[in-house]
């Protein structure tokens, strides 16, 4: 409940926290201390604030998942409609693709899905109709994603109907961007193996160059986002990228 509160506002006073949780002051102090030790928030004078980070790479995944959760859920509903029954999919790790995995589970369609996200694989495996392959490799605790040569080698052996890619940024000229070279490498490998490549990016990612490039607009078929201005729409139209907005 504390993390949900801080995902909606940049500062929560002690009174805000008491109203949201109904907890006693000793409980609030204990929980704030535990969450601060885990790097999920900062204790500040009079309350708490979200953890300060320079990039999403360093954030606890749970806090990333909660950020713009409603928008990610709306994007996931549109993305899931592109996954036809008995089709094959590739999903990289991330909070947007986790939202898609949850939507696919709720729709109960028969699918074949390979993913580099351990948390995605666990969620997808709860649906009997979905056959799940988890791609092996080096595991990064901050994202629950696998990467490295073992992962890219496994991906290169697959050919799927649709690759879904979540990202850290979308650049006007350069395309899909990431805060991690390892994440960029996985996205490139997955994009090569999909007959159709779909990018999931809420509006906060638009215009964010991030550290590492991966897939240019010429290799992307569809962008699903919750908000996009006319200049971006015209630019992507010229790049033959279809834009879908919930």
From TrEMBL:
Q: Where is the HTH deoR-type domain?
A: 1-50
Question: Known InterPro entries for this protein?
Answer: Carb_Metab_HTH_regulators (IPR050313), DeoR-like_C (IPR014036), DeoR_HTH (IPR001034), NagB/RpiA_transferase-like (IPR037171), WH_DNA-bd_sf (IPR036390)
Q: Which GO terms describe its molecular function?
A: DNA-binding transcription factor activity
**Transmembrane spans:** none
One Pfam entry for this protein is DeoRC
Q: Which domain of life is it from?
A: Bacteria
Task: Alphabetically list the UniProt keywords.
Answer: Transcription, Transcription regulation
Write out the coiled-coil annotation as residue ranges. none
Q: Which PANTHER family does this entry report, sorted A to Z?
A: AGA OPERON TRANSCRIPTIONAL REPRESSOR-RELATED, HTH-TYPE TRANSCRIPTIONAL REGULATOR SRLR-RELATED
This chain belongs to which protein, by name?
A: Transcriptional regulator, DeoR family protein
Q: Which organism is it from?
A: Mycolicibacterium vaccae ATCC 25954
């Amino acid at each position: 409940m504390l993390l949900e509160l801080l995902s909606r506002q940049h500062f929560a006073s002690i009174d805000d926290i008491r109203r949201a949780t109904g907890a006693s002051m000793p409980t609030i102090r204990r929980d704030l201390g535990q969450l601060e030790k885990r790097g999920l928030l900062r204790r500040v004078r009079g309350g708490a604030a979200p953890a300060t980070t320079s990039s999403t790479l360093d954030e606890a995944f749970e806090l990333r998942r909660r950020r713009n959760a409603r928008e990610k859920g709306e994007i996931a509903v549109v993305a899931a409609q592109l996954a036809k029954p008995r089709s094959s999919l590739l999903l990289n790790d991330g909070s947007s693709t986790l939202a898609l995995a949850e939507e696919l589970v709720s729709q109960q369609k028969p699918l074949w899905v390979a993913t580099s996200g351990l948390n995605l694989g666990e969620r997808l495996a709860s649906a009997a109709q979905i056959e799940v392959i988890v791609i092996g490799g080096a595991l990064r605790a901050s994202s629950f994603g696998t990467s490295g040569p073992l992962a890219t080698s496994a991906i290169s052996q697959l050919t799927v109907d649709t690759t879904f890619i979540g990202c850290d940024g979308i650049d006007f000229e350069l395309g899909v961007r990431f805060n991690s070279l390892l994440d960029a490498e996985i996205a490139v490998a997955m994009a090569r193996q999909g007959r159709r490549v779909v990018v999931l990016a809420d509006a906060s990612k638009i215009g964010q160059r991030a550290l590492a490039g991966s897939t240019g607009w010429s290799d992307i078929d569809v962008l699903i986002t919750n908000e996009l201005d006319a200049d971006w729409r015209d630019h992507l139209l010229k790049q033959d990228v279809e834009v879908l907005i919930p």
